TrEMBL record:
Lineage, opening ranks: Eukaryota, Fungi, Dikarya, Basidiomycota, Agaricomycotina
Name this protein carries in UniProt: P-loop containing nucleoside triphosphate hydrolase protein
GO molecular function, one term: ATPase-coupled lipid transmembrane transporter activity
Record-linked Pfam families: ABC_tran (PF00005)
Limits of the ABC transporter domain: 395-665
Gene3D superfamilies: P-loop containing nucleotide triphosphate hydrolases
Keyword vocabulary terms for this entry: ATP-binding, Hydrolase, Nucleotide-binding
Annotated signal sequence range: none
């Protein structure tokens, strides 16, 4: 079922949405060709093309020039030269046939020349392939470095606003460069081949009609065929039965095994899958691109097909009307030229159709470097030279409200609060009450939407961000292990001492990870999260059977060590202890890091953290009342983005409010 609907868009070209089977497809509406518009759009992309060419050139100037030379030879010179040399061989053969005696030396010379041409062409292609990969890899590395720098420099607000930048493929710039190069060369090739064909046709006494017939097929194909790839488009599967069927199919994934088995829902899943299939019926689920192409009607399909045979019809008609017009060798040469010309024109047209779209992809990559960083850096050093920060970082929050980027709901609502240097603050409250958010604002991962946060009487935004980062240690349950060695994972808590094994071991002891590291065969050298794609095999079990050597090779592949959730938390905690070795930390924020830790490990972790408390303000977010709340200088109890109670454990119990209620629920469990 196909339906098309045009939508007016205030800025940019109008868009149209259509239903193709189970997909909703939104594209730019097809407008009548407007040269000025096209020119304006292409001109906008010129700086991107120039930057792209400059980038590829700078990645290796020598290889770049050599590659251009070879590609020019291959696409422009070689094809026309091959036509000419093959044509000569055919002409000599034909003359020999007519005379009844072949001209041996001339034929030998022509064939030898054609062979030399072929050998040269193969050599150029071989070199081109090698240079292509080298040049491409150098370009990829530059792109990877650029993307890495841009992404690492992006703050959380930028990350949240730029979801699409995750899908960048490093080969894209080189592929587009190659594509543009091909486009230019195909166009040049088209001109030279056209020149050759016109000359050949003239020499046989035929006019431009035959030349037009040669290029009719590519022209008709590019104008009559509907190609979705040639325009910007969005595809979304929106058929509810198709979506349900896909969701149910995914339940066979290994990650759901345990839930499916324990839930005993196999029969339900199969029955629902069958139901979804029945409801979906014969609705087209094939690729939307194929469905879009199939929309070109039968007549355009037929016309395009017929156009391929036009030159043949021309020879046939001429052989009746004017039997001496074409010799067989001329027909063979013309047929060869016409095939080549048709292919070249087709490629040149496709370049014109897709070029702008592909360059826009590179533009999106370059735009990564222009992501506006919401987080503006200040110029005050931290800690201020004249302050009393030996005790820890002091805070003053004045009417602070905050909504996450792209949302309107207030995660924090009008918070006013004072934290003295060196205080141990414990934040408690129900899920979603804003506990983690407050920590994110104090560590300047986000800026308040309204109100202000002062450190030592100065706006948090006026301090230099790198100084604040160095003065802060965080430990949350959201931390991840890096795909690096365990030693680096811990050592990077203090990058300046990442190689100091003694310090790393001590941090591992404090974080409770010492014993688990000792159990691993590679110890601190173990890499837990191996970067994806570094080892794989496409062997089926049957292929290994009977081939002992292959089996042994597979067994030899490095098995990835794995650790439990609690052990991961211990490793991350060790990284935080390593951070303290920098002696710059004035604020420690610990956000519920103990969810997977056993009670002994949790108790040990908090004790070890309290032992390094000297000279640091400590903020703990927790759901568990016990070790921490008793030691807290102040407990903040949060609800719906606001602080509803604050005071010591005893004060809040006496108050008999929300904190007292939550404490009693936990205490009762042990009565
Ligand atoms: N990255 C985010 N984008 C949008 N909204 C968010 C984001 N993170 C949190 N929120 C929302 O902000 C509110 C406060 O969340 P926050 O994580 O601070 O709560 P919490 O008290 O720490 O909860 P929990 O006890 O469950 O960890 C919630 O409504 C949450 O849904």
């Amino acid at each position: 079922m196909v339906s098309e609907k045009k939508e007016e868009d205030a800025s940019g070209p109008p868009i149209q949405s259509m239903q193709l089977g189970v997909y909703r497809v939104v594209t730019e509406a097809s407008l009548p060709f407007n040269f000025r518009e096209q020119w304006k759009r292409s001109a906008k992309l010129t700086p991107t093309v120039l930057r792209l060419v400059k980038d590829i050139y700078s990645s290796s100037p020598g290889l770049f020039c050599l590659y251009l030379l070879f590609v020019f030879w291959n696409n422009v010179v070689d094809s026309t030269l091959s036509l000419h040399l093959s044509g000569r061989v055919l002409a000599i053969i034909e003359e020999g046939l007519k005379a009844g005696r072949p001209d041996g030396p001339a034929l030998f010379q022509a064939v030898a020349l054609r062979m030399i041409g072929l050998a040269l062409s193969a050599a150029v292609e071989w070199c081109m392939d090698h240079i292509y990969e080298r040049l491409a890899q150098r370009s990829d590395t530059r792109v990877q470095q650029f993307v890495l720098q841009c992404k690492l420099a992006t703050d959380l607000t930028g990350v949240q606003a730029n979801i699409s930048s995750n899908h960048i493929h490093e080969r894209l710039p080189f592929q587009v460069f190659y594509y543009l190069l091909q486009g230019v060369l195909y166009s040049m090739g088209a001109v030279t081949q056209l020149g050759y064909v016109i000359r050949l046709v003239r020499s046989t006494g035929h006019g431009p009609a035959f030349t037009l017939i040669c290029i009719a097929h590519p022209i008709l194909q590019s104008t009559l065929q509907r190609v979705l790839w040639s325009k910007p488009h969005i595809v979304e599967a929106d058929n509810p039965h198709f979506l349900r069927k896909s969701g149910l199919r995914e339940l066979s994934d290994a990650k759901y095994r345990q839930d499916i088995i324990t839930g005993d829902i196999v029969a339900y899943v199969i029955q629902e899958f069958r139901r979804a299939v029945n409801l979906l019926g014969d609705t087209d689920i094939s690729s939307p691109h194929d469905q879009y192409s199939r929309q070109s009607g039968y007549s355009s399909h037929l016309v395009t097909k017929l156009a391929v045979e036009l030159p043949m019809l021309y020879y046939a008609v001429n052989s009746i009307l004017n039997p001496t017009a074409f010799s067989l060798s001329t027909i063979a040469t013309l047929h060869q030229s016409e095939t080549l010309l048709s292919y070249t024109f087709q490629s040149a047209f496709s370049f014109i159709q897709y070029g702008a779209h592909r360059v826009a992809g590179v533009q999106a990559l370059y735009d990564l470097g222009n992501v506006a960083h919401e987080m503006k850096d200040g110029d005050l050093p931290y800690p201020p030279l004249d302050s009393r920060h030996e005790q820890g970082m002091p805070f003053e929050l004045k009417n602070v409200s905050f909504s996450y980027p792209g949302t309107t709901a207030k995660a924090l609502n009008d918070i006013t609060l004072s934290i003295k240097p060196g205080q141990l603050v414990v934040v408690v409250g129900s899920n979603g009450s804003g506990k983690s958010t407050i920590v994110k604002l104090l560590t300047r991962l986000y800026d308040a939407t309204s109100g202000c946060i002062l450190i030592d009487g100065q706006d948090i935004k006026s301090y230099r961000i790198p100084d604040l980062r160095q003065a802060t240690a965080t430990l949350t349950q959201d931390h991840h292990l890096y795909p690096l060695s365990l030693g680096e994972n811990i050592g990077l808590g203090n990058p300046a001492r990442v190689d100091d094994l003694e310090m790393i071991r001590e941090a591992a002891r404090q974080g409770g990870a010492e014993d688990m590291i000792a159990k691993l065969a590679d110890g601190l050298g173990t890499v837990l999260e191996r970067p994806r794609g570094l080892q794989w095999s496409n062997l089926e079990e049957g292929e290994k059977e009977g081939n002992e050597q292959l089996k042994a090779a597979v067994e030899k592949m490095k098995k990835e060590a794995d650790v439990s959730g609690g052990e991961r938390q211990r490793l991350v905690a060790s990284r935080t202890f390593m951070r303290f070795t920098s002696n710059t930390v004035k604020l420690v924020c610990v956000d519920e890091p103990s969810s997977s830790l056993d009670p002994q490990a949790e108790w040990q972790l908090f004790n070890n953290l309290r032992q390094v408390r000297e000279g640091k303000t400590m903020i703990f977010v927790t759901h568990r009342f016990g070790h921490l709340t008793k030691h807290a200088d102040v407990i903040l109890c949060m609800k719906e983005g606001a602080i509803i109670e604050s005071g010591t454990h005893e004060e809040l119990l006496e108050l008999g409010g929300e904190y007292c209620k939550m404490f009693n629920i936990q205490a009762k469990a042990f009565d």
